[in-house]
Specification:
By secondary structure, the protein is an alpha/beta fold. It has 13 helices and six strands. It is globular, with a radius of gyration of 28 Å.
């Protein structure tokens, strides 16, 4: 091979290498761009799509509310204002029916599908018929965005100041007693049903638990709250004045992890009755016979007695006379105390 031919071959080889290198660099840039676009498409905001509600459940106002009737008007107005933010006629009809039937100032199920809204209503129908003590103890039921929820919570029951008088704890002020349903869960019906199935299979929830059972569990908390209100003689529960401020503070303080005197009282009494039939078993077995969640184990290592009570109420809802003996004894203890008086 002549020297000139060798030079041409070398030049062509170099050109080919440069071309391949250029193509590789171009492909790398394109891949990087595509990856960046994918990351942009999978932003936090995109992940929230279809999982958030237009309802602003945590709004706080400052005003001096003159009396209990004015407080009631404000609570009703909140529900009406929030309902204007979504267009869901069939569910709105359910909301208004629940407000009237169960004497709740504001029910806002938002963008929830009709079947899920009916599941929510079904839980209320059962609980208010079985436990009429619930009437007048709940001001709001609302779909809510999950920001601020503890990880994994599908729903929570809470008391929250709604209209403060210039500063927190300055009387008079208005509080909500409400159940919040996580939009990220309740707007995805099939995913929520799957979550129910998984929690049942793992033993964390009672057998047969479904969407209605989630709501019954929260109403179980509210039933316990009704008893605590009775114990602390806490009346006019959403309008706090100098006349009921001390009772409000005592009620509020009792539900801190350090106290829990009311739920401890109920579970202690029920456990004592249960031990008469199961003398060899301990408190842990008592709770575990209901469900894994009923054991009340918290992330900080503490025990939530309120969760034990709420799970017992849920078990009775799901299984009636076939519910765990521990569940039936907790329910009997709670309702007997409620109907006997403090």
């Amino acid at each position: 091979m002549r020297k000139r031919d060798k030079i041409w071959i070398l030049c062509l080889s170099l050109i080919l290498v440069v071309l391949l290198l250029g193509i590789t660099i171009i492909l790398m840039i394109q891949n990087r761009t595509a990856h960046q676009e994918k990351e942009d498409n999978w932003s936090i905001e995109s992940l929230k799509k279809g999982r958030i509600t237009a309802i602003e459940h945590n709004k706080l106002y400052s005003a001096c509310i003159r009396d209990k009737s004015a407080a009631e008007e404000e609570l009703v107005l909140f529900g009406e204002e929030q309902r204007e933010k979504y267009d869901n006629p069939k569910v709105s009809a359910i909301e208004k029916r629940m407000q009237e039937e169960y004497r709740i100032f504001a029910v806002n199920l938002g963008e929830m599908d009709e079947d899920t809204a009916k599941d929510v209503e079904r839980a209320f129908a059962y609980m208010y018929e079985r436990y009429p003590e619930l009437y007048g103890k709940l001001t709001n039921v609302t779909l809510a965005n999950p920001d601020g929820f503890s990880s994994g919570h599908l729903a929570i029951t809470e008391m929250k100041e709604y209209i403060i008088n210039g500063e927190y704890a300055v009387c008079p002020f208005v509080v909500k007693h409400q159940i919040l349903l996580s939009a990220s869960a309740f707007l995805k019906r099939e995913e929520l049903l799957k979550k129910c199935e998984e929690n049942v299979l793992s033993g964390y929830w009672p057998k047969d638990a479904d969407i209605s059972a989630i709501v019954v569990h929260e109403l179980g908390h509210q039933l316990l709250n009704a008893y605590a209100m009775q114990v602390f003689e806490f009346e006019d529960i959403y309008y706090i004045t100098d006349q009921n401020d001390a009772q409000y503070a005592a009620y509020l303080t009792d539900f801190t992890k350090m106290n829990q005197t009311v739920p401890k009282e109920i579970t202690k009494q029920a456990f004592a009755r249960w031990r008469e039939e199961y003398p060899e078993e301990d408190y842990e077995a008592f709770c575990a016979s209901i469900s894994g969640y009923a054991m009340g184990i918290q992330k900080d290592g503490g025990i939530s007695y309120t969760e034990t009570v709420a799970e017992a109420i849920t078990d009775v809802y799901l299984h009636g006379d076939a519910a765990a003996p521990a569940s039936k004894m907790i329910e009997e203890t709670l309702t007997e105390n409620l109907r006997r008086g403090k």
